[in-house]
Amino acid sequence: MKNILVTGGAGFIGSNFVRMVLSEHKDYFIVNLDKLTYAGNLENLSDFLDRSSHQFIKGDICDGLTVEKIIDQYNIDAIINFAAESHVDRSITGPKIFIETNIKGTLTLLEAAHKKQIKRFVQISTDEVYGSLGPEGKFTEQMPLAPNSPYSVTKAAADLLVQSFSHTWGLKYNITRCSNNYGQYQFPEKMIPLMINNALNDKELPVYGDGLYIRDWLYVYDHCTAVWKVLTQAPPNEVYNIGGCNEKTNLEVINRILERLKKPKSLIKHVTDRPGHDRRYAIDADRIMKQLSWEPSVRFEDGLNKTIDWYLGNQDWLKNVVSGDYQKYYDSMYDNR
Ligand code: NAD
Ligand code: DAU
User: Fold this and answer.
1) What are the Cα distances from residue 14, in Å, to 7, 124, 169?
2) CATH number 3.40.190.290 is the correct assignment for the domain at 3-182+219-242
3) For the chain, what are the domain ranges?
4) Staple partner for 105: which of 48, 54, 61, 310, CB 3.0–4.6 Å?
5) Of ligand 1's atoms, which has the minimum distance to the CA of residue 81?
6) Annotated catalytic residue: which of 60, 85, 89, 127?
7) Which ligand is nearest to the CA of 125?
8) What does the angle CA 128 – CA 318 – CA 276 come to, to the nearest 5 degrees?
9) In the annotation, is 221 catalytic?
């Protein structure tokens, strides 16, 4: 499998994935299909946009004809579907586009994959499809799906569609369910870059509720190496959880950011909680660790420092992404909250 169609490759994780493949696996060719929504950004690709082993195409995964044309033209062997509407808060205020891209878009890709007999379909899912945990236990691949937000419902629906194409048509697939990612090029609507950006500008840090919600953080590069192992080594039709055994409360993470940036804790402001906020996520990643010998390579403390330093060193990127519509989004989400 040498010719890969990556969707959503101008977003946070997709662009990190394409960069990793192009620099570490030079015999692969990547077609990168991305609609360039508010979250997609060609600047994320600036260091490899013109590489001969990479072809960027602006387009929508809901457009079946475009997808089929790409498969034919580039002799695509495998599809990795990163493209999605990915922000939980936006799915609460406007769920329709999540149904469109995350469900209908995945269905469109599956139809094309089936028609063109694609060798492997890798669906990038999320641990949020399992719902929320209490203080004990971890998500395993055997758990029933119990998504809570409009976002995670659309991701769970997409997972089930992928499995239905395998059951019905014999499509060979894998599904990965990763925990919260952090790292370079993450759009500052997500907690870590939002807090970094606000702290840099001496703005309040809006902590939802008591701030004791728990996420299992994984450095984005480690998510990318896990997806690569799944694509190249996994038996078909297996689901893999991916996570770093790295549970932190939101306040723990935010306090570390403030310390690194030498900003006062008085910037923290507790605000009205996210409706239906999942309390705790934690991943049991035993299967991928044992079957595919994957393990995370970056400790949280180091990854967070690297991430903060990246935002400090790329303030032009940050300024560009928070100009225009971002400010409107921010005001609508946080004003008088
Ligand atoms: P992101 O929002 O940064 O990027 C999404 C990309 O998809 C953008 O480039 C956007 O332009 C593109 N896109 C959106 N709709 C499209 C469409 N209809 N057609 C083509 N392209 C479209 O998201 P991310 O954080 O990089 O997440 C990537 C994937 O990983 C998503 O499927 C998400 O559900 C999953 N995931 C994310 C995390 C996380 O912590 N960020 C964790 C686990 C899983
Ligand atoms: O678990 C994987 C998921 O992680 C991915 O599937 C999603 O695409 C990704 O967005 C992420 O979802 P979360 O909702 O966990 O991430 P977010 O960064 O939005 O929030 C992380 C935590 O921080 C969560 O408990 C809510 C809280 N939070 C978030 C924001 C944006 C705040 O307290 N204040 C904020 O302003």
Assistant:
1) 7, 10, 28
2) no
3) 3-182+219-242
4) 61
5) 32
6) 127
7) 1
8) 25
9) no
